[in-house]
Structures are given as structure tokens and as C-alpha cells.
Amino acid sequence: MSITNYSEQVLTNLRRDLGILMLDGDNKLIQFESAFFLVDKALAKVKHYLSSYEFKTEEEEITFFKDLMSEFLKESVYFSELFNLESSKPPGPKKEIKRYFEGELKSIRSFLRNNQNLYNYLLLNKTNQDKVFFLRSSMTPIYKPNLFWQTLDTRFCTVYTLYFARIKGSLALSEFIDYQLKLLNGDEPEPSYKRKNPLHWTGKKVELVELVYALKQTGVINHGRADLKEIAHRMGSFLGMNLQDFYKTFSEISIRKKSRTAFLDTLRDRLTDYLEKGEALN
Asked: Model pTM?
């Protein structure tokens, strides 16, 4: 099996496990710490597989270090920073918590400004420097002097894999903090199931949850950086469905004995049937 396919499988399982983990209690510190160790375990699997693997092409190596390894490391950065954020958060009142979150958000924005060129490279999906940034054999120029790079284990990473991971993790953390500030400011919109809405989800709740997770895993919302809870909230709000306990619903999906993607399978079959009948051309 290629390292790409293997890593994608591990990443899919990791994200599933992270989703289920959020079911366990209200202690955020325990959740974030447990999530970090889940990521660490997944990384260990990928590193072990990589240690005896030879890339077939430069393109395969670039894809792995640019898109996959940086995604694992991004999750590591994200949950370690979430743990630090939560453990350092003042106990209250709201004014102090807001000031704390705003200060953290300011630090993240400062980091992104200091790495604006790489941030743009990531944001614009550029590829012109990929061979320099993501091939281990390349003479990678050091973007900024940093003693840490001298101890970098280049068997499993490149300098710019770490840069990309840090940028991705910072963006995810920024979205989390921004959402928390909205809650503190009372800016969260009232769910649509409590007000009039011309569009209503008339299927089963479990089907909408299945769709929410599929949208998250395919990375089609906010370039894959949208928080799962935010997607569920927005989808539920827009379609008049209360998805506050969507993690519990997903845990039921994950232990199905038959197809765990029953609704997505139905969507594919219905669309395929529609196209084959030629109705889409009318």
C-alpha cells in the first residue's frame, strides 16, 4: 500500500476517534489532552510505516509531506495549543476571559503576519516551490534562523512541513477562539428550529449528521479548516434541526453493523440513477 493511501486511512480513523472523544464529559482539559495523545499515536503509526518506505516519485513525496504529514502535525499543534489555552484561561468574569482570548488571537495574527509569504503560499495553493519545500533531498533554505531546525529529524519531516503545520494549527485555533468570543459576546444566532425558516430538514437526524461529517472530512468548507462543531451548528441552524448532541448520533453511526455511510450511499445511488436516465439533461 502506498504511504499516501495508508496515511489517509490513519487520518480518517483519527478524525473519527477525535469526533467520538468529544462525547466524553465536559472537562475540556482531559478532552484536549486525550486528543493530543490520539494524534501522537496516529503519528507513530505513520512514522513506523514511513521508516521502511521508499517514495516512487517526487510527486508522491511532495504530496505526503505537504498535505498529509502537515495535517497530522497540524492536529498535534492544534490540540496542544488548545490544552495550553484552556489551562491558562482565567476563571472569570467574562470581561477577563474575553481579554484573555483577544490577547491570544492577537498573538496568532502576529505569527501569521510574520509568516505572511508562507501563509499566502498555503492559502493560494501555490506549487512552484514544492520541490524545494517538501523534498527531503533538497537543500531547503532556512526561512528564519531557528536553533530548532538543527535538531529536526528529516526522516519524517521537512522544515516547511512544520511551518505549514504550525500555520494550519494556528488558523484552526484562531477559529476556535473567534467562536468562543462570539459566545461570550452573545453574538451566536438563534437556531433556526426556534424561528421561521423556509427550508427544513425532513429526513432523519442521523442522515444529516452523516452528511456533516462527510463535509468535514472532505475539507470542502473553509479549505478544510472549519470546526466540526461549527459545521454541525450552521447546518442544523440553517435546516431547522437541533444537532447539539451530534457527537452521540455519530457514535451510533460508527458502530453500525451494516453500512456506516447508508445515507451517502443512497445519495450516490439516486444521483447515479438520475444521470443514467438522462433526466439531468432535461
From this structure: 0.67
